[in-house]
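Hi D.,

Good news: the full-assembly prediction came through. Inputs first.
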Amino acid sequence: MEMLKISDLNVSYGAIHAIHDVAMSVHKGELVSLIGANGAGKTTILHTITGLCKATSGSVVLNEINLLKTDASDIIKLGMAHVPEGRHVFPEMTVEENLEMGAYCVKEKNLIAERIEDVYHRFPRLKERFRQAAGTLSGGEQQMLAVGRALMSAPSILLMDEPSMGLSPILVEQIFDIIKEVHEQGITVLLVEQNARMALSISDRAYVLEVGRISMSGQAKDLLQDDRVRKAYLGQ
Amino acid sequence: MPKARKIDYIINLAGVIVLFFLLMFIFDTELLGRVRSYIQGIVIIAMISIVMVCSLNLITGFMGEFSLGHAGFMSIGAYSSAVVTMALENAGIILPDLLLFLIAIVIGGIITALMGVLVGIPALRLRGDYLAIVTIAFAEIIRVAFTNFQITGGGKTLSGIPKLSDYHYVYVITAISVCVMYMYVRSRFGRCVRAIREDYIAASASGINVTYYKVMTFTVSAFFAGVSGAMYAHYITSLIPTKFSFNYSAEFLTMVILGGTGSLTGSVVGAAVLSALPEALRSFQAYRMLIYSVVLVLVMIFKPSGLFGSYEFSLPGVLRTLTGRKKGGAKDE
Ligand SMILES: Nc1ncnc2c1ncn2[C@@H]1O[C@H](COP(=O)(O)OP(=O)(O)OP(=O)(O)O)[C@@H](O)[C@H]1O
Ligand SMILES: [Mg+2]
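Then the structure:
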């Protein structure tokens, strides 16, 4: 079943036409990745899905709901959480306050406490630092916090924008393990990545974006073998 | 509310009341002799500034956006309340001072808040410099409008406004205003506003409606600027539009920055000091702006976050520190 469906999407920043006729879909339970070089338009696509960017034409539909007509702050109520590119945490709030903000739309106090425990279980490092201001965490810890905060809303679909950016190889492994784990627990994932090898190795399907257009798509394991992909994104 | 918080609030309330009686002791006895009414005037103007500066701090400190036209909101509160109380008097309706004063406050606050919504909805889509420019333009438009409306004096001084702003009333309204603003920033609303300031993308992704909270804060701020304007009009008793110029807005901003953006305690102190100081040093009146700039430059160099940073004064907190116990979190006005 198609959970998220994007068709004929066009997005412009003034005179810059950033996204051209993009069509993609994510099925329930899938882990789909979107790979592409710097400036290809990956972040733009995610921002259009979550209402932070306006589309010029096309449609984005989540479970039959038109996302282009939905306010950015209502997206999370539809079960879609977004981990924005570049560790957007609330720097002056503590780790725990950041997590609480992630459950902004949840009213039951017990549920919030339960989910915080859950996140701490997943990221013990965050538990050790629960009273530390988020701005003073290391880059990797901030990324964990951003992911943890997104999980606080118990989403059914999670959008992640370059979670591996700027992390050391060990942390990259760790964050991908977490993505895999989250996915295995039944959360649908749309992953944007530059690290094509890692992304393809855990994904079911993938799309390749080149200067605003989808140039290739298919099963992740096929793309891993594809010559063009290997040349352009895997450095082989 | 947890019990400890409640006790803190009660202690702070007691502090506010004690201060009130202290003022009464100073002003209602012969303690000050001939300078009494002069000092009383300075204190009233300082309290009116306190409300203005705290309300401006909601925008610059808590929301993290610049408003350079706050005097415009103040003038709306001043003129709208003055027009209403004068109309009531002219119609021969005799009301007790307190009631008339409250009517002025409510009218000033509500009309200004409505203007806040009207300006806020389109303007708050802008950020940073753009918003600052729009707020300046807004204040100028208001000033020109008041210069041309017949009902507000048509460019001449609007005089004969009833003198209602007695220091007792002003003190109570100031205390309530600061307390309400403090509760606003400490509330769930305030936390969302803080989240937006810290990272609006993350706030939006967490489900916080950025525009709504910004307009809300802008409106609350405008409301209290209007309250302050109403108190001002009924203290000074005559209004002229040129008073509410860009310079006046800039003075309030100076007070916010001196006290510390993000600290209402700082706003209270900044407003009190900077509005009383030039009055007290009357002979230096001509150097007022110069003193302001020097003070600002010094603060920027030695304490960029303002005198108080984001610290909030709390009577119970201070008591606890004095008696060697742990620090608390509430605050006194
Ligand atoms: N706010 C903006 N105003 C103008 N142009 C923009 C804006 N945001 C992005 N762009 C342009 O749109 C194009 C796509 O940018 P986008 O951020 O979506 O790329 P990306 O694929 O996420 O790149 P990266 O991997 O480096 O994050 C780029 O050419 C970029 O310069
Ligand atoms: Mg990007």
